[in-house]
Design a protein that fits this description.
By secondary structure, this protein is of the alpha/beta class. It has two domains: 210 residues, Quinone Oxidoreductase, Chain A, domain 1, CATH 3.90.180; 131 residues, 3-Layer(aba) Sandwich (Rossmann fold), CATH 3.40.50. The chain contains eleven helices and 17 strands. The strands form four sheets. Strands 3, 4, 5, 8, 9, 16 and 17 form a seven-stranded mixed β-sheet that branches. The chain has a six-stranded parallel β-sheet with strand order 12-11-10-13-14-15. Strand 13, helix 8 and strand 14 form a beta-alpha-beta unit. Helix 4 packs across helix 5 and helix 4 crosses helix 10. The longest helix is centred in the C-terminal third of the chain and has 14 residues. Bound molecules: NADP nicotinamide-adenine-dinucleotide phosphate and zinc ion (2 copies). One zinc ion binds next to loops. One zinc ion (ZN) binds next to helix 2. GO terms for molecular function: alcohol dehydrogenase (NADP+) activity; zinc ion binding. InterPro entries: ADH-like_C (IPR013149), ADH-like_N (IPR013154), ADH_Zn_CS (IPR002328), CAD-like (IPR047109), ER (IPR020843), GroES-like_sf (IPR011032), NAD(P)-bd_dom_sf (IPR036291). Belongs to the zinc-containing alcohol dehydrogenase family. This is NAD(P)-dependent alcohol dehydrogenase.
């Protein structure tokens, strides 16, 4: 086994603290890499606080991981020592079910192995995430990362990036569409960048007046403060799609009223409690509410290549790992601009 160190939550109540653990030895198809940067996703917070239930402790969070390869197994063909590599939300899946065969490993019918707060495909061995100094992963679940882009700002693409890219591609969002992005945080700011890059007219729906200028800088054509009923009224029945990135309970009925006939409200945000949705919110205008989970490995690589080609990265605040608790506190208040990324040299 390989000695590793990181930051872990020991239970749902106490703050993260330094933690020693072990990674597996590099097997023939594995790559080992030194983690240089790891993004901080709101899902990290949901899971260390056990807001979705079933959390596995001790938990080393982190699934927006980038670094440089230090060792490859004898059979590895996709990476060599010295390459940049990334890992997102999954480290394995069954590889055999119909979804895996289609490159939709995020919807593996057997259950994929999440990068942390999960178990390897043996169903026993716990997985530990990217708030740590190194990782060992099967080459099929490692992604290629461009040397051209700012590496720290690439890290959030591995979750916030793919989670917003995938639904926009699935629903073929582009020119001629009016898209609303709900919630300007880590996912929201990437949704704005991608929807603009795909040619849509983009409106930011936000609870934070202070984010208006940033939304425009990120490319949004309009900004609507959702606490201002007069502004909200102006966009009733206006959007083809809403990309909902909100992490806390909110009123879906209100946002459904902003969709046009046949409009689709796409949930990527995962609040910890169920929502009440009136049938009439969907019936009037034949509207749909849908969901989307991260993205498969082939699409994640496609997204990273698209970002390299179009010079798209995340807007980040780089933090030392000792400031992680403060980052969580700010994230909870919606004060994120627009992704915290941990400099793993500070571990
Ligand atoms: P984040 O950076 O904290 O951003 C969430 C944003 O939502 C906030 O900045 C805020 O934006 C808005 N918001 C927060 N509370 C709100 C409330 N009560 N009402 C309305 N708006 C509110 O979080 P994130 O990392 O982007 O993650 C967002 C959600 O997506 C989380 O639930 C996360 O677990 C989930 N997620 C899902 C997937 C997936 O595969 N589907 C992947 C990753 C993350 P404003 O200030 O603009 O209002
Ligand atoms: Zn995430
Ligand atoms: Zn599968």
């Amino acid at each position: 086994m390989i000695a590793a160190k990181g930051y872990a939550a020991q239970n749902a109540q106490t703050p993260l603290a330094p933690f020693q653990f072990e990674r597996r030895e590099v097997k023939p198809h594995d790559v080992q890499f030194d983690i240089l940067y790891c993004g901080v996703c709101h899902s990290d917070l949901h899971q260390i606080r056990d807001e979705w239930g079933g959390s596995i402790f001790p938990m080393v969070p982190g699934h927006e991981i980038v670094g440089r390869v230090t060792k490859v197994g004898a059979e590895v063909t996709k990476f060599k020592v010295g390459d940049l590599a990334g890992v997102g939300c999954m480290v394995d899946s069954c590889r055999e079910c119909e979804n895996c065969r289609e490159g939709l490993e995020q919807y593996c019918l057997v259950g994929n192995s999440q990068t942390y707060n999960g178990r390897e495909q043996d169903g026993v061995t716990p997985t530990y995430g990217g708030y740590s100094n190194l990782i060992v992963v099967h080459e099929d679940f490692a992604l290629h990362v461009s040397e051209k882009l700012d590496l720290a700002a690439v890290a959030p693409l591995l979750c916030a990036g793919i989670t917003t890219y995938s639904p926009l591609r699935h629903w073929k969002v582009g020119k001629g569409h009016k898209v609303a992005v709900l919630g300007l945080g880590g996912l929201g700011h990437m949704a704005v960048k991608f929807a603009v890059a795909f040619g849509a007219e983009v409106t930011m729906l936000s609870t934070s007046p202070s984010k208006e200028e940033d939304a425009k800088r990120l490319g949004a054509h309009k900004f609507v403060l959702t606490s201002d009923p007069a502004r909200v009224k102006e966009v009733k029945g206006y959007f083809d799609f809403i990309i909902d990135t909100v992490s806390a309970p909110h009123d879906y009925n209100l946002y459904l009223s902003l969709l046009r006939t046949n409009g689709i409200h796409i949930c990527v945000g995962a609040p910890p409690t169920p929502a009440e949705i009136m049938g009439f919110s969907l019936i009037g205008g034949r509207k749909s509410i849908a969901g989307s989970g991260i993205g498969g490995i082939p699409e994640t690589q496609e997204m990273l290549d698209f970002c390299a080609e179009h010079n798209i990265v995340s807007d980040i605040e780089l933090i030392p790992i000792k400031d992680i608790q403060n980052a969580y506190d700010r994230m909870l208040k919606g004060d994120v601009r627009y992704r915290f990324v941990i400099d793993m040299n500070t571990l």
